[in-house]
Structures are given as C-alpha cells and as structure tokens.
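Morning - HJL inputs below, output right after.
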Amino acid sequence: MKPYVISNVGMSLDGKLVTVGGDSRISCEEDLIRVHKLRAKVDAIMVGIGTVLKDDPRLTVHKIKSEKNPIRIVVDSSLRIPLNARVLNKEAKTIIATTEKANKEKIKALENLGVEVIVCGKERVDLKKLMEILYEKGIRSILLEGGGTLNWSMFKEGLVDEVSVYIAPMIFGGKSVSYVDGEGFKSVDEAVKLKLKNFYKLGEGIVLEFDVIK
Ligand SMILES: NC(=O)c1ccc[n+]([C@@H]2O[C@H](COP(=O)([O-])OP(=O)(O)OC[C@H]3O[C@@H](n4cnc5c(N)ncnc54)[C@H](O)[C@@H]3O)[C@@H](O)[C@H]2O)c1
Ligand SMILES: Nc1nc(=O)c(N)c(NC[C@H](O)[C@H](O)[C@H](O)COP(=O)(O)O)[nH]1
C-alpha cells in the first residue's frame, strides 16, 4: 500500500520549472493560493534536495489560513541539507529520506533538531519502499512539488496518481530544469498516460488537472 500522490508544479509554456538563470517565479498569486489549498488538504508535501538547495522552501501553508501544516518530506540521498534550511524549522514535522551513504553524524544532528530520518536505499532513495514506510506511518496523501529529477523517478516508478499543473504564459527556452527530467522514456508506448479531467483559466495562465492512467 502507498499514499495517494498528487504531482503539482508551476511551469512555463515550454515546460520549464526555472529559467537558465535560476529564476522560478512562475505561479501567479492566484495559483499560489491554489497550491496552498492543496497543501492544506494533504497529509504531507514532498520535494527533492535540489529544490531545498535552490529555493529554501518553507513547505508550510502560509498563503491561506489553516489549522495544521502537512508533514514535510525531503528526499536527500547524501544528506546535503543545510542545518539552517527553513524546511527544518519548528513550524511543522519534517522527515528526511536518505540512503546508506548518509553520514551518521549528520543523521544525529538532524535528529537532535527533532527531524525524523528514514534510511532506505543504497545509492538513491528507494522511493517504492519509502512510500510503503510513509503509508505505515499513517500518511495517506502526498503533494509532490518536485523538482524535475524527483518527478522523473516518481513517474518512472509508477508512484504518481494525479497531476495538476499551472501553465504560465511565458517561454523560458534554454536547457534548464523541466517538469520531468531524468533519462526519459524511449517510446510513446512507455510514456506515462494521463486522462484530462478538468481545466480552467487562472490569473493569466491555465490549470490542467489529470488522472494518471495506471
Ligand atoms: N516551478 C515549480 O513548480 C518547481 C517546483 C519544485 C522545484 N522547482 C525547481 O526545480 C529545481 C530543482 O529540481 P532538481 O531536479 O534539480 O532537484 P530535485 O528537487 O528533483 O531533487 C533531486 C535530488 O533528490 C535526490 N534524490 C534522492 N533519491 C532520489 C531518487 N530516487 N530519485 C530522484 N532524486 C533523488 C538526489 O540528490 C537528486 O539530485 C530548482 O531550480 C527549483 O526551483 C520548481
Ligand atoms: N507551484 C509552484 N510554482 C512556482 O512558481 C514555484 N517556484 C514553485 N516552487 C516549488 C517550491 O518547492 C516551493 O513551493 C516554493 O519555493 C515556495 O516555497 P514555500 O514553501 O512557499 O516557502 N512551485
């Protein structure tokens, strides 16, 4: 058994999550409210360490009123997370998923901050195993916020159930982080297939919502 996973991003029309210059101001204010309503509905929010290192996100519900904050999950193979990262603050519970490569002292330092460290995987975090562990902990829904590398692994492993994307009316061009990176599928047959279930204008952009066809 695994939690229900919703993948959400804000992306440019050409599918990028950030410009080649590292600027990721993509979602309009209305979309950020939509994202925080999503955050308020799920048990946990999950990102890769690349996102933490670039954005230093809080991963809490702060754009709308909410009684609780979801659990924050960071996938971080070699525990590169800085101890002063905002996602480690006291505003919500945080789980770091890492691998056997992780430095034991760093694990202790994180646990001293009240962070739960889950070791699962040798080189990279074993995401299938992680989903089972999180389900056993009572987590039934996860908002996967990216970035492109973690999104690839989650789609590749068939762990994503729903997709919602905000497409901003912008073209970034260049080779920067896209919605789903990684090695990619070789053929259309292998590609993840989606069923469009809703779409609507939001601010200057458009939101598309899909179910993943399993
Ligand atoms: N616009 C948006 O909606 C949005 C959302 C999230 C992130 N971003 C942007 O995306 C960029 C970060 O994306 P990224 O791809 O560099 O990093 P990422 O956030 O996807 O983190 C990837 C890292 O997670 C770790 N990891 C451990 N186990 C893994 C596994 N099994 N599979 C994959 N990764 C695993 C690895 O260290 C890997 O490098 C940043 O620039 C951020 O601003 C944008
Ligand atoms: N949906 C979305 N649209 C964006 O334009 C953007 N840059 C992100 N980025 C995802 C990142 O993980 C964090 O959502 C932001 O960096 C905000 O972080 P906060 O948790 O609000 O501090 N996500």
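Note: The helical segments are 29-41, 49-55, 104-112, 127-136, 148-156.

O.
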